Each structure stands twice: as structure tokens, then as C-alpha cells.
Amino acid sequence: MHISRTPVVAAVAAALLAIPAVAAAAAPTSDVPPGQGKDGHFSFAVIGDVPYGDAQVAAFPRWVDQIDATPGLAFTIHVGDIKNGSSQCTDEYFDMVRTQFDRFTMPLLYTPGDNEWTDCHRTNNGTYNPLERLAAVRRTFFPTPGQTLSADPMTVDSQAAQGFPENVSLRRQGVELATLHVVGSNNGLLPWPELGFSSPTPEQAAEERARMDAAVAQVRKAFASARQRHDRAVALFTQADMFDPTYEVTWADDSAFQPLVRELVAQSRDFDGEVYLFNGDSHVYNADHPLAAGSKWLDFYGVEGSAPNLTRVTVDGSSNNKDFLKVSVTRPGAEHVLSWERIPYAS
Prior knowledge:
By secondary structure, the chain is of the alpha/beta class. It has one domain (about 15-30, about 40-345): Metallo-dependent phosphatases (Purple Acid Phosphatase, chain A, domain 2), CATH 3.60.21.10. The chain is about 30% helix and about 20% strand. The protein is built from nine helices and 14 strands. The strands form three sheets. It has a seven-stranded mixed sheet, with helices on one face. Strand 6 (about 165-170) and strand 7 (about 175-180) form a beta hairpin. Helix 6 (about 200-230) runs parallel beside helix 8.
């Protein structure tokens, strides 16, 4: 969850809702590069910033059931924030969410958000030490390294050996997918005043550096694999919105994201396929190209070059959590590798 920002006019957020989903329209061709001629296609769901508050906690089992019942889904990815920013970070709450995650009948990949650990120093969150809550999140949701959650888990590659079991990756039909544990609140560097600190503690700073290094390594690995196998696309999943269009961002809010943004530009620029970055955090559906030439974000993060082949997609969340994203991987030869649609939750 981003904090300490000044909202811009509400019309900006409203306009974002009107951005259409990318549609794959071109007819397949026979001119398919080596390694990309995969048969068929598949779909998966993306959710995030859910459940937020008592009403969504009560509705979440129905939403899980609806996703499970949606035809053609191979797995679901939750991009973080399993609670709102003003509720208690208790073990009991984590256990409740884990119970719901285990009700998914398809594999569930989950990357943590800031609300479940970095922001737990807040009084209304229980005045926890965030690093202790991070350990609790890992115990609860990543007890078996290299295995997803749900009633029918699948095996995935994991950074567990480096201490980051939440960073996982898999490859499916010419698309490399990877989760990155990168969160709002300046990737967890905002101070913990309720605990008596007005600036990041040494332990807090060391944790953030190690976690960012792991995320950058995960990005490099995903692209290296995609290049080696001539894959059509790389899809990455984070909680943090590093390019939030609904707020006037300051360097103090987002400075920690610079290494990742620079790596995204460097890797995307040298990749012949398409790149997709899915995130939550800002709660309003959006699809854009934040690292294309001329983007303000290139100057903001001090990045040389650009990445016009990177498409960023933000899922609805918080009070806008009225739908999930169904993402489909198209057959080789289509105009775009991924297409998606927002599926409303049944009342």
C-alpha cells in the first residue's frame, strides 16, 4: 500500500478504468521462430489486494469458488496484500487466509504485499515488528519450498536456497513466469515510528537490500531462460506499483525500486519477445507502457534507454475489488502473446 502521497484529481483514476484490455487479433501465421511453436494455449487468473475488510473476508470463499469454476484456468496468481492497511496482522488472520488459499482446486502462486508485514508496525495493525511478521508470512504460506499453495499444488522453481521461498518461477508453452517479492511502502523502507524509529533501521535496510537483490536475480534468470529457449514472452508479478499513475510520486516514496526498474529496462531491451508486468497496490485497473520512450518514469528512476515492449497491468483491488483478471496465452502468430479480460464477481 502506498502512503504519504498527494492524490491527483479523481478524473485520472476514472479514466484509467476506461483503458481497454489488450486483445490478440491477428491471425496465426506459419512464420514462427524456433522454440515458439507450442501447441494450444492456456489461461490463468490474477487477483490482488484481497480480501480487504470484513465484507470481503465474508465474500472471499465465494470468489474462490467462482475462480475455480471458471473454465480453462490452469492456475491463479495473487499479487499480494491479503488484508487492508488498517487491520490486525495476527497469526489467526494469516491462518484464515491460508485456509481459503488451500480451497483453490488449481495451483495458487502468491507473492506477499506490504499490508501483511511491512506496515504491521502501525498501531491499528498491532504494533508488530515487520521483520517478525515477514517470518510469520513465510512460515504460513511457504512451508514447502518449490511447491505452490492450493488443494492441488504444483512444483515450481524457487529461491528458497537463497532465503526467498516466495520468489518462484515456471515456464508454460513459450512463456516464462516469475513472482518477485517487491512491495509498496518504498519496498518496506518507510520508517516504523510506532516502534520508535524515524528512519530505516540497519536490519530493515539490510532486509530490503537482500530482497531487492533476489528480485533482480529472479528477473535476470527469467530472461536468460526465455532467451535460451526462444520464448515468446516473460511475465513478472509484483505487489508494488512502481509506476502509480493516480498519485504524484516523490523520490522518498519510490526510490528503493530503482534497481529493479533499471534491470527491467536492460533485460527487456535485449529481449525480442514481449514483456508483461502485473501488479496490485494502486487498486485501479490499468494497462500501459511505463518504460516506453518519453515516459516520465525513465527520468524519475534515472534510467538510460527504454523498454517499449514492456506492458504493465494493474489489477483491481481494495474497494474496486469487483472482478478478477483472466489472462490468456495466445497461440503463436497472434498479434500479442497475452490477452486478458476482467471477470466480474457474481453477487
